[in-house]
Amino acid sequence: MKRLVLAITLFLAACGSKPGQEVLLPVKSAVANDQPFRMFVATTRGRSATQALYFDNGRSPTVSYVAYDISIPPNHAKGEIEWPKDPPDPRTEFVTVGRSDYDRRGFLNALTEHGNTDVSLFIHGYNNSMEESVFRAAQIAKDADAGGAAILFAWPSAARATGYVADRDAADFSRAALATLIEDLSDSRKVRRIVVIGHSMGGRLTMEALMQLRLKGRSDVLREVEVVLADPDIDHDLFWQQARIVGKLPTPLSVMVAPDDRALRVSQILASGRERIGKADVRDPDMMAKAEAHGVRLIDVTAISTDRMAHSRIVQIAALYDTLPVAKPGTGLRRAGAFVFGAVGLGMAEIGSELGPSR
């Protein structure tokens, strides 16, 4: 019981106040950035009963499609969200300046209307409100500057530190919707490259969706996706079972891990001590063998400095995106195994040997 109280206390201490829903309402004012960033969103959140433009933590059986145009200030610091105050100032803060609602077909058409052929799909983690996840996804996509269209899949997190179990259920509730979205992107003749990034509990949701695609017989879809799990909050044994069912992908499934992740340590306590894959020791011979056998690329990112909970390295990684050896198609690591990021400059080193050119 003492360990459970400690776990909850640690979670609560790490959680600050959350932005209000109004930050996603378009502000009709001069835009400091004349080219706002368009953040596409597919969500299983329900619409607010009192304000149709808001999404709450209700669970919707149908997916809503929307895009937010977000003005990002000229002085934006990579890795940060300059949250808007009241009144918001687009010269110094992130400000929502536009919104578009779509049906399913219109959403898919809008993704590629400006010639985009690459798509990045971000799945947020536990304890995230709609507002937090939209602004964070926009910040990560903007900092990475990977090009193409950026999509957030927003599942109905309760956005409360004490809502861990409810969030896990909400993520599972959204599995079929995420799998369908990935199918839609793959089936689109205009989309060439699909990069799927699942953070924390969003990593569990990502693996469940991939597993559903495999069981549905959509191996053609799985051949077209590149998958990155950052700080995944997944039971160790469950992950390897999922990986076995999903099977080897043409580009190995990348899993960014850090043994010092305090949030996953708390998750482990809440799960009766069951290890989380996001805290894996890449130097463990058993872990290395499993990575090779299942076509997984385990990457220890402990060398990247991060926040107190050591659970947000995806933010710093986005700022370093163009330095990563896996950043661009046709370059970087294309094999499974265990690696350490930052062991050689800003590159990655394979456990037991220094990395050479991709092969």
Write structural notes for this entry:
By secondary structure, the protein is α/β, with parallel strands linked by helices. It has a single domain, classed as Rossmann fold (3-Layer(aba) Sandwich), CATH 3.40.50. About 30% of the residues lie in helices and about 20% in strands. The protein is built from 11 helices and 11 strands. It is globular. GO terms for molecular function: hydrolase activity.
Any chance you could write out the topology, listing elements then pairs?
Layout: H1 2-14, E1 37-47, E2 55-71, E3 95-102, H2 104-111, E4 118-123, H3 130-144, E5 149-154, H4 164-173, H5 175-187, E6 193-199, H6 201-215, H7 219-222, E7 225-230, H8 236-246, E8 253-257, H9 262-270, H10 285-294, E9 296-300, H11 313-319, E10 337-341, E11 348-350
Parallel strand pairs: 1-5, 4-5, 4-6, 6-7, 7-8, 8-9, 9-10
Antiparallel strand pairs: 1-2, 2-3, 10-11
Helix pairs in contact: 1-9, 3-11, 4-6, 5-6, 6-8
GO molecular function: hydrolase activity
Protein name: Alpha/beta fold hydrolase
InterPro entries: AB_hydrolase_fold (IPR029058), DUF900_hydrolase (IPR010297), UCP033909 (IPR014586)
What key attributes describe this structure?
359 residues, alpha/beta, Rossmann fold, 11-stranded mixed β-sheet, 11 strands, disordered N terminus, AB_hydrolase_fold, DUF900_hydrolase
In short:
By secondary structure, this protein is an alpha/beta fold.
Provide the structure class: alpha/beta
Per DSSP, what share of the residues sits in E-state strands of 2 or more residues? 15-25%
Average per-residue pLDDT, rounded, comes to 86
**Biggest sheet layout:** 11 strands, mixed
